Structure formats: C-alpha cells, structure tokens
Amino acid sequence: MALKECSVILAATLIFAPQVHGADVKMRVCFGDDVVNGCPVSTDVMFSCGNENNATFQKICSRVENGKRVLLDFSVTRQGTHSGGKCGYAWFELTCHEK
Question: Quick count: other Cβ atoms within 10 Å of Cβ 17?
Fold first, then answer.
C-alpha cells in the first residue's frame, strides 16, 4: 500500500473511528481512479483503485486503546458504481459497530 493511502487510512481512522462506546459510526467510502477530483457522489473518504477490500474497511474501523489496536466489527453495503478513468468508481456505506 502506498504511503499516501496509508496516511488516508490513518486519517480516516482518527476522524471516523467511534469515540463513544456503544455508538456506531457510518460513512461513505469511495474507491476510484481520480482521488484528487473525487467520486461522482459525496463521500467521507476516498481511496485509489484496487483498495476496495475488507482489509481497508477493517483498518478504518479500528482504534487504539491502551497502546493496542482494537478491531471493530463492521458492515459494508455497496451503494453504486460508475464507469470512468482506469478503473471506474465504486462507493460503499461503511458502518463501524462499537463492541
């Protein structure tokens, strides 16, 4: 994974990871060719092609407690796709479930 993508995952984790126990957090995550100009729909987080996998979603839905990474349960729903660029675009609703 490229350094830029790692930075985005870290930022997404810090911004969107649930901060209050018991509170689920929902966000729209988009994957596509043109990260700079973005997805054809509004999104909270944008990643480049080829990263739409459970490992990326799991990294977003995690937090650090007492110096250890805690992986949260999550659910993903594909909301849409659009052609364009090298790989097109796909966007998902990601819900991080608090344990």
Answer: 18
